[in-house]
Design goal:
Elements: H1 4-22, H2 41-48, H3 57-66, E1 75-76, E2 79-80, H4 94-97
Antiparallel strand pairs: 1-2
Helix pairs in contact: 1-3
The structure holds iron/sulfur cluster.
Iron/sulfur cluster binds next to helix 3 and strand 1.
Length: 115
């Protein structure tokens, strides 16, 4: 089920981007790098300042504020939306990593046969 506010924000951002492209311009984040979604918070903080010069910043901000599911990683509209604990695309292996093997158990493969 779509959210009318999210749909409106997406349409407004798309129209603004299209308008920029028609004028042969692009937003600062379209610089061919992935710095707006860099793993480094310091890099994201630095590029977030570049959003100040973006003519579609308000629309980008509105889009990010209404997106569903919520955006939890990267810089949008000058705001770093990265969650404190990055879970995006990461498989949580901690239950496996923290498991202590029970070395008192044997399997039939562990038994040495005297035959
Ligand atoms: S405001 Fe949005 S579109 Fe503009 S540079 Fe920042 S992230 Fe890119």
């Amino acid at each position: 089920m779509s959210d009318p506010d999210a749909d409106d924000a997406m349409r407004a951002l798309s129209a603004a981007l299209l308008s920029m492209l028609e004028q042969d311009t692009t937003p600062p984040c379209a610089d061919g790098t992935d710095r707006w979604t860099d793993d480094s918070a310091a890099v994201r903080a630095k590029v977030a300042l570049r959003c100040d010069d973006c003519p579609i910043r308000e629309r980008c901000h509105d889009f990010a504020n209404t997106a569903r599911p919520p955006i939890t990683f990267g810089v949008y509209g000058g705001t770093d939306r990265t969650a404190t604990t990055k879970r995006h695309g990461v498989v949580d292996l901690s239950p496996v990593a923290n498991a202590t093997p029970d070395l008192t158990q044997t399997t039939t493969d562990d038994r040495v046969s005297d035959d």
